[in-house]
Amino acid sequence: MSFSPRSSGLNGVRLAAAFGLAAALVAAPALAAPGTDQNTDKTFETFRKDAFGDKAIERDSALLTIDAPIRAEDAAVVPIDVNVTLPKDDPRTVKAVTLIVDENPSPVAATFTLGQERREFALSTRLRVNAYSSVRAVLETSDGQLHMAARFVKASGGCSAPALKDEDQAMANLGQLKFRPAVANASAKPRDDGSSDAQLMIRHPNYSGLQMDPIDRTYIPARFVNKIVVKQGEATVFTMEGGISLSEDPAIQFSYLPGAAPVTVNAQDTEGVQFSGEMQGRPKS
Q1: Contact 235, 115 (CB under 8 A)
Q2: What is the pTM of this model?
Q3: Cα distances (Å, whole numbers) of residue 78 to 63, 100, 147, 151
Q4: What pLDDT, on a 0 to 100 scale, did the predictor assign at position 18?
Q5: Which of 3.30.1360.70, 1.10.10.10, 2.60.40.2470, 2.40.50.100 is the CATH number of 5-278?
Q6: Residue 170: its pLDDT value, please?
Q7: What pLDDT was estimated at residue 130?
């Protein structure tokens, strides 16, 4: 029996890797050759309705930007930066931001659903890129409209690249958290909403199901961080639903609105193991 994450709805797209190596290989596309069109729009159209239904998507939207290297130094750790800014006279807020890598076996990398009625949002993370691909950020505003920005990245093999740590070492450090305010960039322009940045890193191998054990030459079963909840007191800053495209040791830098309440994180992986922590060195309100 075959399984295709591109025809199974959004949850199937996110979690297809959990069905094992065979499922991922069925869906894995051929590598795009250098010199081809600098986008993978045709691939995106094969799963767009599964991920977003029949909603129209405004392409090349002025509401958001995505930045990534044109040619990645390491396909397993590709830095991605997303910035969302709504106009001052726009009454809407940011509802969600979804990261997509078109040519990955499970193309929806993560969806961040926001609280705090944000009008600006900044996000940085690291993704695996399995083949030359457009990497996309899709913004959903509070009125349900979708807006998209994309960047073409030349990289290959990110989902099958060997883990940096052996399995024993990875399991020994599983779930260790670093959660703290980000170091301020002196040249960065202050945001209109007064938001600050925080950094979160979770020690986790984030196995994709496509990586081979170097000792016995068998494939390591998929196991990855699939949910993160960040709160400030009882208020949600964001929730994240993730898949196999987040890199090993997932790292996320995000903007939030400082307040008096402590900022906490609760996360879990596909085996149901939970991790939690509180921000250290939290800025004063």
Answers
A1: yes
A2: 0.85
A3: 23, 13, 23, 12
A4: 39
A5: 2.60.40.2470
A6: 81
A7: 97
